[in-house]
């Protein structure tokens, strides 16, 4: 196997001081990185999209796992270090300089691919919701393995009747299975962020037919916009929602956080049809 220089040396040699503006918190522990790369199962010979490779810690782990990696990095200071990595794994790493928010990953792969990323916190949720919102379902990606602030990770996997349950949980869970795969202590990063992190693993589920995501969002926006109020109050502004609740036998005196994802989906489905 190719011997690579320690990541700290790569960073020092290329002058890659972490930029706060770019949400840079690097991971150096190669064993931890190998464990993260193993979360989606074997990646040997699989296509992988990595967002924000930075100096390439997770990228190395993905390459060691045998993946064909396409990486999108915004910080051009990282490109020479990534070019060295590409040389060490000929034909296995393609680096695109750019903003992942502006690149549709479907344009990068002919078939199925997995997404892994130690996401920049400031863009993580936007990328995640974007990947969940494609009209075509199941999507072309086979899994997402993403680092979030632990608080955001908990909101993604939250169950009803908990304070973390809200719009993000409903959006994530109506068409995917999301689980908390690993907690990562803040001290694992350089520099350490203020809060703890956690990795969420997401695989698509079959989306219920006849539901418009926009309608579902309108319903959850209304319901959780006033989460302490009863639905009959919080959903007043969503045309047809109160009739839909009645038709479905959902008590309008309940509050948003008591509704299951399936119940939200059934309301959205009724409104999509109406
Ligand atoms: N993957 C590396 C690691 O685990 O050590 C770096 C992770 S660091 C939290 C996030 C990386 O994403 C940085 O390298 C940053 O430059 C990059 N980045 C930030 N915003 C981005 C964007 N919109 N598109 C692509 N890369 C971005």
TrEMBL record:
Subcellular location: Cytoplasm
Ribosomal RNA adenine methylase transferase N-terminal domain mapped to chain residues: 32-206
Catalysed reactions listed for this entry: adenosine(1518)/adenosine(1519) in 16S rRNA + 4 S-adenosyl-L-methionine = N(6)-dimethyladenosine(1518)/N(6)-dimethyladenosine(1519) in 16S rRNA + 4 S-adenosyl-L-homocysteine + 4 H(+)
Cellular component GO terms, alphabetical: cytosol
MF-aspect GO terms: 16S rRNA (adenine(1518)-N(6)/adenine(1519)-N(6))-dimethyltransferase activity; RNA binding
EC numbers, comma separated: 2.1.1.182
Pfam name, any one: RrnaAD
Enzyme category, top tier: transferase
Chief localization: cytoplasm
Keywords: Cytoplasm, Methyltransferase, RNA-binding, rRNA processing, S-adenosyl-L-methionine, Transferase
Amino acids binding S-adenosyl-L-methionine: 25, 27, 52, 73, 99, 118
Residue ranges of coiled coil: none
Lineage: superkingdom: Bacteria
SUPFAM superfamilies: S-adenosyl-L-methionine-dependent methyltransferases
PROSITE patterns: RRNA_A_DIMETH, SAM_RNA_A_N6_MT
Family per record: Belongs to the class I-like SAM-binding methyltransferase superfamily. rRNA adenine N(6)-methyltransferase family. RsmA subfamily.
PANTHER family: DIMETHYLADENOSINE TRANSFERASE, DIMETHYLADENOSINE TRANSFERASE-RELATED
Known role: Specifically dimethylates two adjacent adenosines (A1518 and A1519) in the loop of a conserved hairpin near the 3'-end of 16S rRNA in the 30S particle. May play a critical role in biogenesis of 30S subunits.
Protein name, as recorded: Ribosomal RNA small subunit methyltransferase A
Species this chain originates from: Novosphingobium resinovorum
